[in-house]
Specification:
By secondary structure, the protein is α/β, with parallel strands linked by helices. It is built from 8 helices and 10 strands. Helix 2 packs across helix 3 and helix 7 packs across helix 8. Bound molecules: adenosine-5'-triphosphate (ATP) and magnesium ion.
Length: 242
């Protein structure tokens, strides 16, 4: 995979061109292309094994595509994996400091302070990460993804382990980031959440991008009067042979 300078309209932050990923004979991603705008909030939805994690991790630069390119350099992209890579014996602040050093940030301490404030973790700064609630661990996971003040933040199923109140907090926080100009891409199996919070959705199935557009546009592609977005989504997949 090559990383090239951004082209296209100035509002575009991240473009994927013909991303393909092979695992041996298995095609996990098949020529996936799209262009995302500054401050856009985009959901990636699709069945298990569709290629959502593969796509996000390739965009983040933690995995290489077999072919294709991403226009935003990995240093400008924040990555929030589904399984947090946290050091459970270290404190919240120590984890942030460690990752800030790994990312070679100029001013480690101010980055740590900034992230503690931004993610509302100041009161937890000295607490051992292994003792945090799932919601606070997720917040730290996101704080690490945001340390380098990336132009785009990618989150793999960020809400899957959260209770409804923590989920609400997550989406308020993520919506605020997008509102301030960060492009946010998240995957989810909760399609109602995708409909509610995303400007556009990307539908992947068996490695193919089947749709990119707004939730109402997706509903518009299926006939009849679907009860809700989830029904429309299932009908859409069915109509495309999935
Ligand atoms: N490291 C790997 N080696 C071999 N095959 C892999 C590897 N990672 C993913 N795959 C395969 O690639 C395909 C896409 O997997 P991926 O994890 O991206 O799907 P997903 O949409 O994130 O699924 P889920 O909803 O279950 O998280 C699957 O067929 C999976 O088995
Ligand atoms: Mg996945």
């Amino acid at each position: 995979m090559t990383t090239v300078a951004a082209t296209g309209p100035p509002s575009s932050t991240l473009t994927a061109r013909s991303l393909t990923k092979q695992f041996g004979a298995r095609t996990a991603l098949s020529s996936v292309s799209f262009e995302l705008s500054v401050g856009e909030l985009v959901a990636v939805i699709g069945p298990n094994g569709a290629g959502k994690t593969t796509l996000l991790s390739i965009l983040a630069g933690v995995q290489r595509a077999t072919s294709g390119e991403v226009t935003l350099a990995p240093e400008r992209i924040g990555w929030v994996p589904q399984q947090p890579a946290l050091y459970s014996k270290l404190s919240v602040a120590e984890n942030l400091r460690l990752f800030a050093r790994l990312e070679k940030l100029a001013d480690t301490e101010s980055a740590v302070e900034r992230m503690l404030t931004q993610t509302d973790l100041e009161q937890r700064a000295g607490e051992e990460v292994g003792r945090l609630s799932g919601g606070n661990q997720q917040r730290l996971n996101i704080a690490i993804g945001l340390l380098s003040e990336p132009a785009a933040l990618l989150l793999d199923e960020p809400s899957s382990s959260l209770d409804p109140r923590q989920r609400e907090r997550l989406w308020t926080f993520v919506g605020g980031l997008a509102g301030r100009g960060t492009t946010v891409v998240f995957s989810t199996h909760n399609v109602a959440e995708a409909e509610r919070y995303a400007d556009r959705v990307i539908v992947l199935a068996d490695g193919e991008l089947l749709f990119i557009g707004t939730p109402p546009e997706l509903e518009g592609t299926v006939g009849g009067d679907p009860r809700d977005f989830e029904t429309a989504f299932v009908r859409f997949l069915h109509s495309r042979g999935h």
